[in-house]
Amino acid sequence: MNLQEVDGLSNFNCRICGGGRAAFYCHVKDDTSRNTGLEFDYVRCEGCGTLSLDPLPTPEQSRMANESLLGITRKGSSFDKRYTPEYRETLRNEYRLTFNDLEFNLKPPSAGASCLDFGCAIGSALDVLADNGWETYGCDISEQLTALADRQQHRIFTGELDQLPGDWGPFDLVVTIEVLEHLQHPRETLHRLISLLKPGGTLITETPQVGLLAELYGEDWRVLAGLDHIHLLTRETQIGVIEDFGCRVEATSSFGSGCTMGLVPPHIKRAFDTLVKRQNIGDFLAIRATKIEV
Fold first, then answer.
1. How many angstroms separate the CA atoms of 179 and 201, rounded?
2. What share of the chain is helix, strand, coil (3-state, %, to 5)?
3. Percent of the chain with pLDDT over 90
4. Cα 38 from Cα 180, distance rounded (Å)
5. How far is 15 from 36, CA to CA, in rounded Å?
6. Can you give the pLDDT at residue 48?
7. Measuring CA to CA, how many Å separate 171 from each of 135, 138, 174, 244?
8. What is the pLDDT of residue 74?
9. What is the 8-class DSSP label of residue 206?
10. Pairing state between β 171-177 and 114-118
11. How many CA atoms are closer than 13 Å to the CA of 291, on its beta-carbon side?
12. pLDDT in tens, 60-88
């Protein structure tokens, strides 16, 4: 059944490609939905293959999802472990691995080179970049998370992207890691981020990719996170959007097999994680692109 169409007509409007037709994909009720009492369907755009929540959540519902994700709304709970002090170095190592997989030189191209991390959370990626000599700027909407960032080392802004201080940018590097999937308007956000780059500057993105693993797992795909993940793009669509806004994709890396540590033997997890990375079919896709000089 196509939930978007009635008598052959459609009121769907894809926020990625502008297409007007979509088909029902699946219904997901996960921890975020259970914690908020809100449930949504995913639909697939027939134009670009993007999976989007239907109906799209309101800003207030997105806020509830964010707070649920962090553990704020659950009595007696604490932050997701990724944002605890004990996990900080593990998270930094994950970012170092992503930069390495993309063959990104962590050394800044010149003295005073600056970078912006959009969706910086507690600033772990900024820690890695600052340690290598970058001037670091971070932006995130979460007061709870930015309060944990090192404000002695980084300039941190808590708020929306379009509210950035006027003297920020242009930047030599813009990073956004596991953020685009949470946004109402990821295409417009990418356009804005690229506009903040200097010509010849580097863009690094990381977000889930709809591909082979999504099809194999179906409605059990771990990335179908209900209210938390609003738009999920294919590899081709992600690259296409970045190129539409004047960037040249230089490198990609995908990772994540869905094999959860502790639920499968370590050697099985290593084998599948290695396989999906080599075949570029993992749950997540990281992209390094260069803004074309005009």
1. 20
2. 35, 25, 40
3. 65
4. 21
5. 25
6. 97
7. 10, 12, 7, 20
8. 45
9. E
10. parallel
11. 22
12. 887 777 766 666 544 444 456 777 778 88
Say which residues have a Cβ less than 8 Å from residue 277's Cβ, sequence separation at least 6: 101, 253, 254, 255
The pLDDT value given to residue 75 = 43
Question: Cα-Cα-Cα-Cα dihedral of 210, 212, 215, 216, to 10°?
Answer: -140
CA distance 141 to 160: 6
Distances (CA, A) of 247 to 79, 199, 201: 36, 9, 9
SS3 264: strand
pTM: 0.91
Query: For 8-30, what is each residue's pLDDT tens digit?
Result: 335 789 999 999 999 999 988 76
53, burial (CB in 10 Å: exposed 0-12, middle 13-18, buried 19+): buried
Do 235 and 211 contact (CB within 8 A), yes or no?
yes
